[in-house]
Specification:
single chain, mainly beta, 7-stranded mixed β-sheet, 48% strand, globular
Length: 123
């Protein structure tokens, strides 16, 4: 499964960005999709995930500001990021997990990864 993340960029604090994770995998609906991020010198951390059934899960640090979604017809997952803060600056990665129900929050448990897209939030 190949994943292509896009939509990153430079934005001022308080601004918004929408990340996309596209794939050509026709069994996309069989995967839970997650977004993770990694800032310089830090470990990769869970941001948000959406289950196969469409249930969403968020890290406490982004709850209320970020929205994850999926469009199975377009075989794409999205991460809408609002009210961005400098602390959100990181490389953002999308990932796919074969888990049948729910989602996982540990990066090592995901099966496939996109290449990452840089998000920089200036103060």
């Amino acid at each position: 499964v190949q994943l292509q993340a896009s939509g990153g960029g430079l934005v001022q604090a308080g601004g918004s960005l929408r990340l996309s994770c596209a794939t050509s995998e026709r069994t996309f609906s069989s995967y839970a999709m997650g977004w993770f991020r990694q800032a310089p010198g830090k470990e990769r951390e869970f941001v948000a995930a959406v289950s196969r059934a469409g249930t969403t899960y968020y890290a406490d640090s982004v709850k209320g500001r970020f929205t994850i979604s999926r469009d199975n017809a377009k075989i794409t997952a999205y991460l809408q990021m609002n009210s961005l803060e400098p602390e959100d600056t990181a490389v953002y990665y999308c990932a796919a997990d074969r888990i049948a129900y729910g989602v996982r929050r540990v990066a090592q448990e995901y099966d496939y990864w996109g290449q990452g897209t840089q998000v920089t939030v200036s103060s």
